[in-house]
Queue: 2 jobs
Job 1
Amino acid sequence: MLDRLNQQPADALLALIKLFDADPRADKIDLGVGVYRTDDGATPVFAAVKAAEKKLLTEQDSKAYLGPEGDMGFVHALMPYVFGAQDPSKGGRIDGMQAPGGTGGLRLAFALAKRAGINRIITGSPTWPNHPQILADLGMEAVNFNHALPDGTADLEALRAAVANAQEGDAILLHGCCHNPSGIDYTPAQWDEIVTIIADAGILPIIDLAYQGLGQGMEDDAAGMRKVLAAVPEALICYSCDKNFGLYRERVGALYVMGRDADETAKVLTNGHILARVNWSQPPDHGAAAARIVLEDAGLTKQWLAELDAMRDRMREMRDTLAAADNRVAGLDLTAIATQNGLFSILNLNKDQILAIREKHGVYMAGSGRINVAGLTRGNIGKFIEALADVAG
Ligand code: LMR
């Protein structure tokens, strides 16, 4: 019977990791999968996380099950950063559960929406390829609108039209910050408009917040989402600690639910618990426990936030350097990269150019032309600009 299954291609983004590893060139450049890199090209464990892990190793006295909701100490310790230090639960209307990474949070959010009778999710395009893939797997429909204008800013007109055409019972998926793959975030004024149109349309916001702290800062990166939450009765928030705690392979994330009142939130979360139980039963503990220890310790929290600041500053420097090289690369507009946020931006290269830059110069980027800005360093950015000029010109 299993022979009825067709061969599937490897995930294109994750396959790039293996292609890059297999390339023997010493000066190859990895701008593929979204992991942060230092100016030496390394992805070290955060010092604050390392210290927390040491403490965990010494102090943890049991590995008995916690339940489908995972480590609620972690879930609650994160809330002041996500929802604001002032009444983070909004009078008990917001609560959450741990999930295996941001993907686990998204899976729960979409499946909860489906359980609530929602079938259509209005989604900007391009988006992270796993968004439509999860929706398709759940038998849900992604209703696309254009996200990015050619000048590297957000296409608000397309969003307005998509929401105007929304049907009763639709949801909208929004990237809270550091849009993946374009780096094109909404301005504060655009968020104000989005808040109004979403609230007027009565659609359910599902917000993917996977890069908090890596765009403009912890508070600024959550500001748009918080405005949405202040204006709507219900929302789902999918959170990832992959990047802002550097916990990628530990799979640390959360799903937060904002209901009309605390009772509704608790009821929705019981559905989340069942969905967790039938999918992964309980989330992995180690990474979430380490993040909780960081958040419970003022000294480690300070260290963690300083590490995040340094990452953000380094990526900003790379963005500025790239944008300043605009006049050296004919045929590509690099200037908007300086105004975009987070790990990613999209270069307007065609498939042949993306293949040529890989084969000729050892530069690996996603097939969409997405680059991981964090893969650039003071040491390799000059070579990257020359490679770009060669293939784009
Ligand atoms: C990315 O977009 O590169 C990251 O979110 C990693 C992933 O799982 O795709």
Job 2
Amino acid sequence: MSAEIPTEQWAQVVEKPGGPVTYKKIPVPTPGPDEVLINVKYSGVCHTDLHAMMGDWPIPPKMPLVGGHEGAGVVVAKGSLVDDISIGDHAGIKWLNGSCLACSFCMQADEPLCPSALLSGYTVDGSFQQYAIAKAAHVAKLPKDVDLEAVAPVLCAGITVYKGLRESGARPGQSVAVVGAGGGLGSMAIQYARAMGLRVVAIDGGEEKGQSCKALGADAYVDFQSSKDLVKEVREATPEGQGPHAVLLLAVSERPFQQATEYVRSRGTVVCIGLPAGAYLKAPVFDTVLRMITIKGSYVGNRQDTQEAIDFFRRGLVKVPYKTVGLSELQKVYDLMHEGKVVGRYVVDTSR
Ligand code: NAD
Ligand code: ZN
Ligand code: ZN
């Protein structure tokens, strides 16, 4: 390692399931032969980080845990086997920290499905620290003209919704409902959908989120908190009143997962992306059959999806609505997120 890399750094550490996070100094890790060490400058805060801290999911995260998987920074050290990344390159730490690259899933670019995948901020420490490690083969390559602060949320939220929209099969000119549209993934989904030539029906709760969705380009906004008949309103917001061709479920509650098949257009596709704790999907078999509805899941994206999602951002086709706070204030962001009060994305600056 070079002399400028310190031995200690600031990090936010989850010591036990349920949290909170503790802002403290921890050792700077050393990259293995196939890894890089990234000086994380900014990291987005994804709801997944909160699920991880709260122990919401069936797979337990490592403990103690440094969360974070939208980390944008500069490569400061690399292992002996890394020859396609240079010190000084800009790179991003995403949810998929590494995978085996040899199993049948990896071989066909389905690396998120790799049985030995490493997950940033879940099974390995992530980007809520000043220096984080990732497998060189999997880091997102960030062109130098891309702003590290603004691009951070693209590294999970952007990639995930870009992939989800592609999985939905919706084509330019068609409509997509974005459920949870005022949150981090949702705000990005509106933008990617617009850039792909889709009409957007945004669904979330409250006026502030409605204004944000409209400002980002949503054609209509349906407020799940005040709507008297959400299914009818969503259908009516589409050109023929037949419902959207696709639904992206990004919400952190179960209810919309039960509702989506009621308003999706016949032959339409419901894509599950949000991961509310303990949630189940329920749909009437009769309707699913007679209206030929597809229900599927979509999980982050592969390396190609990553670079394509970043390229949309680089070309100015999507912008990220974000607010920046110091890494030391992460718990406050989690508190707001828990209350459903985050509009867009929070980014943490690791220097404060
Ligand atoms: P977020 O907290 O920023 O946004 C969630 C939004 O859902 C909020 O705006 C909230 O108001 C809204 N919401 C809650 N109940 C709703 C309802 N009944 N109808 C409509 N909207 C509702 O969270 P985020 O960071 O955007 O993450 C969203 C979810 O996606 C999380 O569960 C996260 O773990 C998951 N996620 C999945 C993947 C994947 O690969 N599948 C990747 C990243 C995140
Ligand atoms: Zn995420
Ligand atoms: Zn694999």
